[in-house]
Amino acid sequence: MLNQINGLHHVTSLASGAQENNDFFTKVLGLRRVKKTVNFDAPDVYHLYYGDEQGTPGTVMTYFPFPNARRGRPGAGEVGTTAFSVPTGALPYWSERLARFGVQGLTPAERFGERRLEFKGPDGDGFALIESDDDRAPWVADAPAEVALRGFHSADMRLSPRGAASSAELLRFMGYEKDDSANGVTRFRVPGGNEAQVIDLTETSGPMADQGAGSVHHIAFSVDNREKQLEVRKALMDTGYQVTPVIDRDYFWAIYFRTPGGVLFEIATNEPGFDRDEDTAHLGEALKLPTQHEHLRSRLEERLAPITD
């Protein structure tokens, strides 16, 4: 069993428009855009990162906004809901605020004794706010500090019964422990991890998901450094998983593998961080390009639609 994984690092999804995506996360949810760069494999598409002041692992939602991308179809084999922590008592504020912004799908609920508010993003993305005793410092923009988002609480993977069973086994191998189970949902938690240490597995008998705008592309787990990442990679490969070589993503190093349940997992390092090419006071302001795409800057600046903050 592994002991290097801290919890979530980031969650990466697909969107159909950069401006709408930026406005939702910065103006509706009150997160900070901590990086404006491009997709390594499709540099004419933005890669936008939103999180707390520094883009701390466990707070960062990232997006590839492919212009006019078709909507994804929800189903098995995907992360169906990404949940953020808010302070206890904050949900009435968020219920009113999200309704005022016209956010769809507002549904109050409770799971494992925690109050939650479920809702949809601009492309039908599944989100929830969950009240918890979370003392992480928020990024304070439009939302007051006493109710602002604290970072991720959890991610909910929607899986077939067979996929749920195999994913539970994988999570245990990754250092997660079963926390609770009820109503077709099993909760896992990594002990001693960061505040984003919860994964829920929800069983569904429906069809497989069809990825598109509003779908989670992959979910990333945090390790402290490259040494621990290599330990995880070796252990996964020794267990039979097909794991990519280490890839430099500028702000972290990454490895990827596909789970038996169909979800793409990433293991990402906490180093070097988002301030490697911008000081903290100006994160997310300038267009930052990977070294291999810097020669395309003039063309990309013409093709990428400007984002108005």
Question: How would you describe this structure to a colleague?
Answer:
The model has no long low-confidence stretch (mean pLDDT 97). The chain has an eight-stranded mixed β-sheet with strand order 2-3-4-1-13-16-15-14. The longest helix is centred in the C-terminal third of the chain and has 14 residues, at 226-239. By secondary structure, it is α+β, with helices and mostly antiparallel strands. It has helices at 18-28, 91-100, 161-173, 226-239, 297-303; strands at residues 7-15, 32-38, 46-51, 60-65, 78-87, 107-111, 114-120, 126-132, 152-159, 177-182, 185-189, 198-203, 216-223, 247-248, 252-258, 264-272. The protein is globular.
State the gist of this model.
This protein has helices at residues 18-28, 91-100, 161-173, 226-239, 297-303, and strands spanning 7-15, 32-38, 46-51, 60-65, 78-87, 107-111, 114-120, 126-132, 152-159, 177-182, 185-189, 198-203, 216-223, 247-248, 252-258, 264-272. By secondary structure, the chain is an alpha+beta fold.
Number of H- or I-type helical stretches: 5
Low-confidence stretches are: none
Helix and strand run:
EHEEEEHEEEEHEEEEHEEEH
- Give the helix proportion (percent range): 10-25%
Helix/strand class: alpha+beta
Task: Bin the strand percentage.
Answer: 25-35%
> Sheet bearing the most strands, described?
8 strands, mixed
SSE order and pairing:
Elements: E1 7-15, H1 18-28, E2 32-38, E3 46-51, E4 60-65, E5 78-87, H2 91-100, E6 107-111, E7 114-120, E8 126-132, E9 152-159, H3 161-173, E10 177-182, E11 185-189, E12 198-203, E13 216-223, H4 226-239, E14 247-248, E15 252-258, E16 264-272, H5 297-303
